[in-house]
Amino acid sequence: MNKFILGVAAAALGLSTQFANAEETLKLGLSHALSGPAAYFGTNASWVAQKAIDRINESGGVKVGDKVYKLETVGYDNQYTAAGGATAAQNMILRDNIRIIANSQSTSAVIATQAITERAGALLFTGVWGRSVKGPEHPMTFTNLNSPPEILPPLYKYVHETHPEAKTVALLNPNDASGQEIAKEAVIQWEKLGFTVVSNDFFERSTADFAPIATRILANNPDVVDVGGTPLPNAGHVFGEMATQGWDGIKIASAGSEAEALIKTGGDAAENTYFGLGAVFSGENATDTQRELNEMALVELKQPLNQATIAVWDSIAALKAALEKAGSTDPEAIAEVLPTLVFESSYGPSGFGYADIYGLPNQMLLPVIISQVQDGKVVELERIIPEEMKSKM
Amino acid sequence: MSTFIQLLINTLQIGAIYVLFSLGLTLVFGVMRLINFAHGEFFALTAILIAMQMGWLLPDAPFWLQYVVSFATALGVLMALSVVIYQFGLSRFLGDLSSGFIFSLGLVLMMRGLIGQIFGNYPMTAPPLVEGAIYVLGGAISTQKLLVAVLALIATGGLLYLVFRTKLGMALRAIAEDQEAAMLQGIRYKRLALYGFLIGSSLAAIAGGLIAPLQVVLPTMGGELIMKAFMIVIIGGLGSIPGAIVASFLIAALESFGSYFIDLPVVTIGVFVMVAVLLVIRPQGLLGHVVR
Q1: Mean pLDDT of chain A
Q2: Which of A249, A341, B21, B170 has its C-alpha lying 20 to 30 A from A208's C-alpha?
Q3: How far is CA A260 from CA A125, A252, A374, B143, in A?
Q4: Is the ipTM reported for this complex over the cut 0.85?
């Protein structure tokens, strides 16, 4: 009888140990905008993150040394603000004891987040563009989306070669950290190509009517209008107003990612607009992963995905590869391994690089996608793979 | 010359929407002595309902018919919601500025949260009703914007007629002037306050409906406009209908001419400075009355 009880107890202990192993999870933090004007952006990115970890968990999880981890996301609303970013980071680091943040949105929120994550030695992924969040002062920050220094040179070169007669450009950006950052980079890159920047304007994100701005831009009669980081639904209205006021020049939305939205609001005026971040995930250049995710998003979110919302998929893919290669969940060990990886992102093989620009190879190496509105649809013209990625492959 | 005309046209199209939106706010204050911050949410909800219905309701009908039906449905929903909000909330705070202030702020948070939950926080767009542009003395305006400006001015004219030429309007003005004296004359204050609130809400709804094809429709779009409308109402004089009209075109002209000659962010700051200075030298606003 005693042997029987001991046997049952041993079996129960074995089962419970196995159960504990099976339940071992690694929490990844998400700091997304889930309320306010950017909420759709955060909601969609959170959905992508869930799909990424579902896929990894369904295929057996992440093997770290001799342990297998299931991934779990813990998300907080950063409201796209510094205060929201700080609160989200405090909750993740102090309350949930998270040491890996798989994605964080908004430059101001990321700056506030870094102040907390860096003290805790946590790893942070983000798609924001500010140069100030990257580089040797932030060795634990990795970026998962092309930003102006990667996008603008090939995009402007393409436009310059296609329209050699164009000589002047007007810039328009939102009056915030991202907008200022893009404008600064855009001026440098346009002038490198010999263009004259005839105006460099900023607008408040709450601007409702773009007619006055269009009138101001057109006063200089530019050959090219580059709306930089202007949200594309607003950019559509800008181009619409300019068309109404009689302008028909070269239009560029260099850093906007919601290309379809520009067509909706701009109508005919959106025709021929160039994009530097306007991938078409339903198009023939998209990878199978991108096409499949986009189809699911159209059903579940009623929205197509864009390069900004799909970015978290790639940081989670990079994390899986780094965890397995490092054989450790220690953020520093992962950060050490990340720049050495070639992993499978949603775009195909990717890695990390651009140390020549930022001083550290912490920027994801992704193709620069040049697209254009043609006959009311966004068409990808070219996917330019960075030379550094080609050498890694 | 053509630039000047263009700037005037820009002023007209921006000012028309400001007038319509801020008139509702000032009317509700005049009658109910209450600042309805949820006015912006009424505006946003109508725009969202229209953007959602376009293409879904009567998909084979012409655009204008889809728009008219969507607009009518949204207006109906807004009116029903306004009656509920008045009966179960606002009617308890009539004339109580501080409690009404807190209630309306709570209403903003509740409505914004509910709108986000029910309709999602995605930017939506409603297709333009008419294409093309009209050219006047070297200036240009899209036919769509001209149509919206004309409709906004017609709605404003309708309101002015109602307020200054009808018995209901006289009663509303009497309440705004002196509530107790009006009640002593037999005016049923609570009923008139409901009418005033419904007229104010319908103005917000009409503004939302007119602007839906012109802007990106978002649950937060009303919050952006309410601050501007609040400044317009203060500049014009709290409760003053002519004041709101004058201040709307003044702000629109500042935005249009200022953003051309200076810079839009600087103009935005300039408007705030103007409100602050005006509050110091003329607290009752341009056309408001001094309350003694």
Answers
A1: 91
A2: A249
A3: 27, 14, 12, 23
A4: no
